[in-house]
Amino acid sequence: MELSRRSIKIILKLLESESAITTRELAEIFNVSVRTIKYDLSDIREWLKTKNIKLYSQRNKGIWFDLSDVEKMTLKNELLVTQSFDVYPDQSTRVTRITMQLLMTNKFLTIYDLANSLSVSKNTVVTDLEKVDELVESFQVKLNRSSGYGLFIQGKEEDVRYLIEHLLQTNFTEYDIYNIMNQLVNPNDERISSINLGKDNLFQSTYTQVIEELSLLLNPTLLDQFNYTELLSISLRTTISVCRLRLHQPIYSLKLLNNQNQLIEKNDIPFLIMEKIFEKYDLPLLEEEYKYIASNYTKKGPIQDSLELTNRLIKDVTEEISIPFTKDHQLLTNLFAHLSLRLSKKYQFINEYNPFVEDIKKKYPELFNAVLVACRREIVNLGIRIDDSFVAYITLHFLVSLEQQEQEVIRVVYVCSTGLGVTNLIQQRIYEEVGNVEITGFASVLNADEVIKEKKPDLVISIFPIESATHPVIKVNAIPSKDDIQKIKNTVDHLLTNEDGVFENQLKQTRIKKELKNSEEFSQDLIVKGYTIYEGLLHIFNGVIKNDYSDAFLLHVFLMVHRITFDGQYDPVGNVDKDILINNKQLLLEVEQLFAENDLSVNDAELTALFQYIEL
What we know:
616 residues, alpha/beta, Arc Repressor Mutant, subunit A, 6% strand, globular, PRD_sf, transcription
């Protein structure tokens, strides 16, 4: 028997869960009735019987598997392959397949052709075509219907290719990615399964050829220049280019590529794979096709200042959702490093594969939309579409900042009566009504001074009119009223955001755990080392640090020394620009010598980021 797509997703959910899941929970996850889930579970049990796998269930506990990690992985991989090519695809899958079929042919396709290929009725295809219409229109492409002939898709070639890439990337499974990368790195491993990104279509056969050739070109030294998403984009775009050219659909002009020898000397991977595959299919090496394969990043104006761009993005998002991201200097540093590396790389793919997109859009829609709006407003000279993937990676930096801000709380001592029931009631009310607070202790009017001295709170809330020269105090009723709650909220917000208040220093101190003496000495040594490196770099980079970058440069160097010390350097995979390092060889040697003299081993990704601050 064959499983439905939802049944496959239910099994995958159960395999990923560390504990039993109830039918009601599954119904909520998949937005169907409990009865429907029970029908699905019946089909799942029948399917599992053929594989001698038992699905356990217990009333009031739920459903679960009792499998080893290896058994879970084996079953999961089989399902992930099946999921792409099940006999009874859901509407979303059918819409993708219909669209891909129309994009991978230069012939008219009839409703009968599509129904036959999907093994569904013509009425089903007619309904699906409404969704195809919606999908392609969002990419400025049109589904045309010609009476007596059939269906075909029409639009600008760059829009058509963008749509193809979107369809492929959004339908990748983790198994697909793992399998593709394994074939690139271990081409002779017989255990690797074949790659399936289509069903008997032009793209599938071409992509297999591209991966085989790309695996022969790559070597360990070249792999340092790429991350897996870049290799994925290069392989996909090479295949799309070949397929569309074979359908007589070039992108832009037919001008031949005239700097082939220079690209060969530079060991340029996009060109080398293009050369191999185009020769197989007897296609001309066109300049615009190379640009398409190598990057979708085409500057249309002056290069934007990455630091200025970072500041504007943070400011825009802060104003849009009223969260004080502008006060997070770590966010500024991390996002600046991300954008500097991202927008200066040789092979640039904004619309790359990103497994976080759907989760981020679903769980944090307000933040995602705020970042999207900010990016579209501020990134103006790149000649690119601001893709969901690009936005999602930037949103991740804001999520890290948001998480840190959410962890920042105001520590409160509450002075009231000492009855246990009353304190529990007050604590519950405060936690329900006010965010970002932690009641660290209750005190009576008799021991208030002692408790405040011991707990060192950020704020004192009291039903008695006490005074404190060192802590802000709010007088409230015995049972806090609505006005009292609002007063507490306002004070908490003020304490969290006020940089110049009387109690700023104490507020900071209460958030810093006291460390042992040796930790304090280590911190001092690290600060001194950071400043030593900073001064040394100022000497090496004398006169070449970009204007208005001095403050950011200082912060970056200190955080860089911290990352190196605590084994948190930037990942070298895909974040190394060999051209920058080679072209600044003398400066590079001096920088490496400086770090070596201070017992710090710095990698090429950190050096690449450092060189973003200088005029090259």
